[in-house]
Design goal:
By secondary structure, the chain is α+β, with helices and mostly antiparallel strands. It has two helices and eleven strands; from the N terminus they run ααβββββββββββ. InterPro entries: DUF5041 (IPR032222).
């Protein structure tokens, strides 16, 4: 009886060895989350916005504005013309690339179904600290006024347990009114906004 029990146990154990040995497997398929993380590691970020509910024949202007605190350093408006009713896809895409941490030139590729525009922002040396993208809370489409979509903001200095650190955390979403106590801590920002013109 004991011999047969040992024999059965040995056979079961031998059969389980491959399962125990190869419990971890490599996954070769990539999903969109993997690709986005890989691009981010390379300094590339992609943002897409759906404007399919926009009224026909309204114009789209995208604004790229650079701020130091409350002072506007530069403004680049890009007029993409009318989104006519025959246009099948009403999407806007922004692809952003930071050249390097030391030079911090921001390359922005604005993609509209009708055209593509490239823009570049060279950041002054005093603002060349870590920057991060932050999307602004979505809402209903609004017309004939500038609506913020997202921004690229500089991390701020803070102190925790006597150690100096750089932070970029919010606690709550940032609405279109751009009211958040942490926004006041940002010295430098590149703000992307849209305007739908009737």
């Amino acid at each position: 009886m004991r011999k047969s029990f040992r024999l059965i146990f040995t056979i079961v154990f031998i059969c389980l060895i491959p399962a125990l040995s190869f419990a971890q497997k490599s996954i070769s398929e990539l999903n969109s989350k993997d690709l986005r993380a890989s691009l981010k590691l390379l300094g590339v970020e992609v943002f897409k916005y759906d404007f399919s509910d926009a009224e026909p024949n309204c114009g789209l202007t995208i604004y790229i504005e650079e701020y130091n605190k409350d002072s506007l350093l530069s403004s680049h408006p890009f007029n993409f013309g009318l989104w006519d009713k025959d246009l099948g896809e009403k999407e806007f895409e922004l692809i952003a690339k930071v050249s390097s941490d030391t030079t911090q030139t921001y390359w922005l590729n604005l993609i509209h179904p009708k055209m593509q525009v490239k823009d570049r922002i060279n950041v002054a040396p005093e603002f060349r600290n870590a920057h991060y993208w932050m999307e602004i809370e979505e809402g209903e489409l609004e017309y004939d006024k500038k609506i913020p979509l997202l921004f690229y903001g500089q991390a701020w200095e803070d102190e925790i347990q006597g150690m100096k650190i750089r932070r970029f955390c919010w606690g709550q979403a940032i609405g279109r009114d751009m009211k958040n106590e942490n926004l006041e801590k940002i010295e430098h920002m590149v703000l992307i906004s849209y305007e739908l013109k009737r």
